[in-house]
Amino acid sequence: MKIVHPNGTIGIIGGGQLGRMMIYRSKKLGFRFAVLDENEAPAQALSDVFIKGSLKDADALEELSKVSDVLTYEIEHINTAALENIHSKGKVIYPSPDVLAVIQDKLLQKELFVKKGLPTAPFFKEDDPCKADFSARVFPLVQKSRREGYDGRGVKILKSANDEPMSPPSIFEEMVDIDKELAVMVSRSIDGSLALFPVTEMAFNPDHNICDTVITPARINEKTAAITRDIAVSVVESLNGIGIFGVELFLDTQGKVLVNEVAPRPHNSGHYTMEACVTCQFEQHVRAICGLPLGDTTLLRPAVMVNLLGQPNSSGAVAVHGLDRALQVAGFSPHFYGKSQTRPFRKMGHFTVTSDTLEDALKKAEYVRSFLKISSITLTGETK
Ligand SMILES: Nc1ncnc2c1ncn2[C@@H]1O[C@H](COP(=O)(O)OP(=O)(O)OP(=O)(O)O)[C@@H](O)[C@H]1O
Ligand SMILES: [Mg+2]
């Protein structure tokens, strides 16, 4: 179903940076945006309508639904039962609540991958990990809480049976010997048409296990890239998903590609599309959920995206250090999320450097990373 264009209202559940970027990159299509969040949120200032309320509160979701022609979300931790209820009354919601229900539960996701014959790390489940007997298991194991994981929270590596597992119902995966972590943004429209963005490479900061650099195109051979794209498409088609999806995968040291997980929304690994592709992931999502033709996903230039995380040991009102210097770098483009308070490792913004060659983009990104910092204003040291 097409929503009324151009004056239709898109309701976004969640007002974080993904919602904010969705608004500022899609406003040009003419839509209005309503946002639900319980806190003052990055997307609030850009929204046409802001509803203050919890993403778990059925009444707040209902209120958002009433002012929206189509509902979408920028975070998975939502009251899915309430969403299903709204959906059953005829409201258009993309991706649909049943897709969200699968993705919210890492066990259901993994079971779907297995059912569809998609390569993924072997796993088992435990409903009460603290009472489970691990004596016959092969370690290391990667424990993942079935629900509410985010940015590596809810993931724990168990090196031996002596390591204490986390308590919530979990899956336990074999540890993959990872060569590279890959991601692909896949958009799928109401009519089933697909458009894929290039395969990217995600690099993680070893200190805090948050992806901090995304390199595009991924430095892999074309055969591996083709296998990666095929798996990513199968994941989204097996969900029957509509919208944009971030599919995370591992390339292991034997050259095998395994699917890790999927996000039913714009994704950190797709931020580079704003500067580097003809159409960006946010506009693409809006096109997909509104029944508009999908945009051209061609990569215009190699790109390196770096997350700007709050400095360790620094909390409070935000200070940005080194921006003047960074803005002098050709191909540098910053995005600040408008969060007034910083905390250690909080995602405060990101920047992308594009260049004619990936080597040059990497060099410039590392240069900017060395001095562009976000901390609290009380931190001593460089102020510009
Ligand atoms: N089976 C595995 N073997 C090796 N490393 C793994 C495995 N599963 C996860 N990891 C590592 O842990 C990271 C976080 O895992 P995962 O993506 O499943 O959790 P998450 O909390 O949903 O993370 P995020 O929100 O950052 O995407 C992965 O990016 C990878 O670095
Ligand atoms: Mg992940």
Percent of residues in helices? 10-25%
Gross CATH architecture of the largest domain? 2-Layer Sandwich
Helix/strand/pairing class, anyone? alpha+beta
The CATH class of the largest domain is Alpha Beta
Number of helices: 10
Mean pLDDT: 95
Bound molecules: adenosine-5'-triphosphate, magnesium ion
Determine the strand fraction and express it as a percent band.
25-35%
Shape assignment? globular
The number of domains: 3
Report on this structure:
The protein has 384 residues and is of the alpha+beta class. The chain folds into 3 domains: 9-93, Rossmann fold; 122-174; 178-376, D-amino Acid Aminotransferase, Chain A, domain 1. It has 10 helices and 21 strands. The strands form 4 sheets. Strands 10, 11, 12, 13, 14, 15, 16, 18 and 20 form a 9-stranded antiparallel β-sheet that branches. Strands 3-2-1-4-5 form a 5-stranded parallel β-sheet, with helices on one face. A 4-stranded antiparallel β-sheet has the order 6-9-7-8, covered by helices on one side. β1, α1 (17-26) and β2 (32-37) form a beta-alpha-beta unit. α3 runs antiparallel to α4 and α4 crosses α5 (106-115). The protein is globular and about 60 Å long. The N and C termini lie far apart (50 Å). 43% of the residues are buried. Mean pLDDT is 95; it is low at 380-384. The chain binds adenosine-5'-triphosphate and magnesium ion. Adenosine-5'-triphosphate is lined by residues 121, 142, 144, 149-152, 154-155, 173, 175-176, 178, 181, 204, 248, 260-261.
